[in-house]
Amino acid sequence: MASEPVSVKEFQELARQVLPKMHYDFYAGGAEDEHTLRENVEAFSRITIRPRILIDVSHIDLSTTILGYNISAPIMIAPTGMHKLAHPEGEIATAKAAAACKTIMVLSFSSTCTIEEVASCCNAVRFFQLYVFKSREVSARLVQRAERNGYKAIVLTVDLPRLGRREADIKNKLVKPQLKNFDAVISTEVSSDERSNLQFFSRALDSSLCWKDINWLRSITKLPILIKGVLVPEDAIKAVEVGVDGIIVSNHGARQLDYTPASISALDEVVSAVGGKVPVLFDGGVRRGTDVFKALALGAQAVLIGRPVIFGLAAKGEYGVKQVIQMLSDELELTMALAGCPSVKDINRSHVRTKHQRPLSML
Ligand SMILES: Cc1cc2nc3c(=O)[nH]c(=O)nc-3n(C[C@H](O)[C@H](O)[C@H](O)COP(=O)(O)O)c2cc1C
């Protein structure tokens, strides 16, 4: 592609060109038939925007606040593993881009740079994403390191009791790079070959994790806890009951259970069930500013982006991540102007119509 990319889609194409097939497939792929992977993006096209006219949009304010932290636009960085497969600077480049764009980065449990390296490279507001291993001690030590190093929240990912079946990775015989965070915490009896095996990761996960374990997590950290991977209102209600500080509606970028609904299709019901008691964030399939707008209209406080960040990183490192976030922010700003919403708080449920929704009665 000779000219500068003008959309996330074009960044994806650049990433495909520069990455080895095995790594591109790892980032772009989803579980099994990849039905939900396609749906995550396509479901946005079934939601239409109801623009309002003759509203002063000479100044558009994209800024918002998440758990008390001001960010320049409601677009955060989702936790995605192993950024060094996309770019040699890995998560350090991503964090610097987050700082430059004044947004929040959620560092993955499976990062290739350490908790400490990412903390010391810049002043981005960082949350730490957690998986719980059978050896609780491993997860507890990582949480404590995150807390000591100034991470501001724990994002507990709950949709991965086992690793989803990603057939491209199986075919490509994907080998994980060294995850340095674990060097000091995983028994030296586990060889590095064994650790590079995706099945080792799957076997290490504590698939007995359940609601009562939120109390265990509370007992080892003072940080706010968000749970990521909520798709149905029943679970959203339970999450509020056990006292989480936030919910992330997500199907893990369609990498876990195929044939779950598109993430955006689950948002409306979850938001209603939560009833404003805790913030609801959203991820899955966001590729345009209009997608961000639709998620906000359906009640998300902010969206997180996974693959778009990786595509930017692979294509152009830190600069590419900045460009992707800026591009989506610019698109959101334009959408807000054209839809008659001068600020994020002006966006509401009346600004979108979903496929199954009857036209609003005129009286
Ligand atoms: C390559 C890749 C790695 C991921 N790794 C993690 C992870 O380590 N922890 C986690 O909670 N979610 C992980 N996710 C899921 C993302 O946090 C997020 O839910 C998803 O990417 C959002 O969809 P999008 O990629 O369409 O934006 C990963 C997603 C991808 C694509």
TrEMBL record:
It comes from the Eukaryota. It comes from Nepenthes gracilis. SUPFAM superfamilies: FMN-linked oxidoreductases. It is found in: Peroxisome. Its cofactor is FMN. The active site is at H252. It catalyses: 2-hydroxyoctanoate + O2 = 2-oxooctanoate + H2O2; a (2S)-2-hydroxycarboxylate + O2 = a 2-oxocarboxylate + H2O2; 2-hydroxyhexanoate + O2 = 2-oxohexanoate + H2O2. This is (S)-2-hydroxy-acid oxidase. Its main location: other. Glyoxylate binds at Y131, R166, H252, R255. Residues 1-357 form the FMN hydroxy acid dehydrogenase domain. GO terms for biological process: defense response to bacterium; hydrogen peroxide biosynthetic process.
